[in-house]
Design goal:
Elements (H helix, E strand, L loop, with lengths): L6 H24 L1 E6 L4 E6 L4 E6 L10 H39 L40
Antiparallel strand pairs: 1-2, 2-3
Length: about 150
Amino acid sequence: MEPQMDMQQLFAAAQQMQEQLMNAQQALADAEVTGTAGGGLVKATVNGQGELLDLSIEAAAVHPDDPPEETARTIADLVLAAVRDACRAAEDLQQQQMGPFAAAVQGGLPGLNLPGGLDLSGLGIGAPAPGGEAPAGQDDADDQET
């Protein structure tokens, strides 16, 4: 049987983990990832939290001989694809940065005798505990591509 940590050690470990979590969250806020579509004709840049920072459309994406409605649809499709590509890259970055925290909490913290499976999804970390629900606004039902 492992010896239990005293309360001072527990608080120190929790404070250290909180600092590491805050640093990882700040790194995500500062990070920028870019998604592209149309062979680079459209570029979308988002931060590590998925916020759109920049969108650029090359002039070559617009063909003067195409009907305006077709051009508008094409541009919209390219923008959507580039933003989705950038958001996927941001999600990958989030998993890289935040995954270790989710794994530590969901697997329990060794030596602390705390239960695993804690739901930190409300903080943007990990998935809900089994049987738990996603936080409001994060329902995947409307995210299907058409």
